[in-house]
Structure formats: C-alpha cells, structure tokens
Design brief:
It is elongated, with a radius of gyration of 35 Å. It has 175 residues and is mainly α. Strands 1-4 form a two-stranded antiparallel sheet. A two-stranded antiparallel ribbon has the order 2-3. The protein has one domain (3-131). Helix 2 (39-52) runs antiparallel to helix 4. The chain is built from five helices and four strands; from the N terminus they run ααββββααα. It has helices spanning 3-16, 39-52, 92-100, 107-131, 149-157; strands at 56-58, 64-65, 77-78, 89-91.
C-alpha cells in the first residue's frame, strides 16, 4: 500500500474526531482518544470558544417548548441544549459546555498546544529534509582536495601563457 493510500484511510477518522463533525459527547468512548492527537480539535475548541463567548441567542417560536396552536402567549422555555429551564434564550458559553463539551477557559491553552504542534511539525520537516534524500538523487558531496603549501607556491610560480596574459590597457588615450 502506498503512503498516499494510507493517508486516505486515516483522514476520515482524523476529521470526524476533530470535534466538528462528531461532537465530544457523541464520540464513541473507544475512539474518543483520537481527538487528543488531533491539532484540529484544539483549533476548533479555541475558535468556537472565542467566537461564542458572551453571545446570547434568542429562541425563535419554533425552538420554544411547548410550541404549536393553542400554546401562543403561554409560558414557554427554550428547547436548545444549554438553555436554563423557563428562559427564552441560551448563552454561547452554556451551549459550548453542554452541547460540545468545550470550555472557554481553554482558549489560551489550546493556542499553546496548536503552536507546539506547529513547532513539532516544522522541526520534523527540517529533520526529514536534511536526512531523507530526494527521489533520484544521491547524497553525493563535492569534495575538494586541500592543497599543500608547496603545491600552492608552484602554481603561483608558473609563468602565465600568452593566451592567459591580459593585454595592458593604455592609460594615455591621446597618444
């Protein structure tokens, strides 16, 4: 099996257990550990926590319970996960904690974890670039022989041939 085929087998599990497709409370307990190895999980929790913190969502009539003909004007409560009983709204923080299992106190922790993953990927990439030869190339290196002092003196002492000698440039243009 080629490496690209292996990647396509592992990507669906990686994507589903990032916390965006399958919410944390809905994850199968045997496979929920995948989210801790997934940088996307930390990114999604940080972004959603940052965006939904402090927001209040009002429930529309279809989201109120009881709903239907004959219930208009009576006491009703919001039927969205995270809403307090008897209220007609839900806060973003309550929704995150009850529906997704995310906490707004993890924003900076998750940012640090994502940066650590990024540094680890960069370091591993640099190590791989230095140690794995490119396809079709060799690890050949051009080595130059270090000349001794006497060889250098002999090279400098040889007279230049007529072809290698440079013509003298006239400095007086008028003559």
């Amino acid at each position: 099996m080629k490496k690209n085929e292996e990647r396509h087998i592992l990507n669906p599990a990686n994507d589903q257990y990032s916390g965006f497709v399958l919410y944390q409370p809905s994850m199968h307990p045997w496979l929920s550990w995948i989210r801790w190895l997934n940088p996307m999980y930390y990114s999604i929790e940080a972004v959603l926590s940052n965006e939904l913190e402090g927001i209040v969502f009002d429930c529309v009539p279809r989201q109120l319970a009881p709903f239907g003909p004959g219930y208009a004007g009576g006491p009703a409560g919001c039927a969205i996960t995270g809403a307090e009983p008897g209220t007609t709204f839900v806060t973003g923080t309550a929704y995150l904690e009850s529906a997704l299992g995310f906490s707004t106190s993890h924003i900076w922790r998750n940012f640090g974890i994502v940066m650590a993953w990024w540094i680890a990927y960069v370091v591993l990439g640099c190590i791989a670039i230095e140690n794995v030869p490119a396809a079709g190339s060799s690890r050949g290196v051009t080595l130059f022989k270090i000349s001794t002092e006497t060889e250098a003196e002999e090279t400098l002492a040889k007279p230049a041939s007529a072809e290698q000698a440079t013509p003298e440039i006239a400095t007086n243009a008028g003559t």
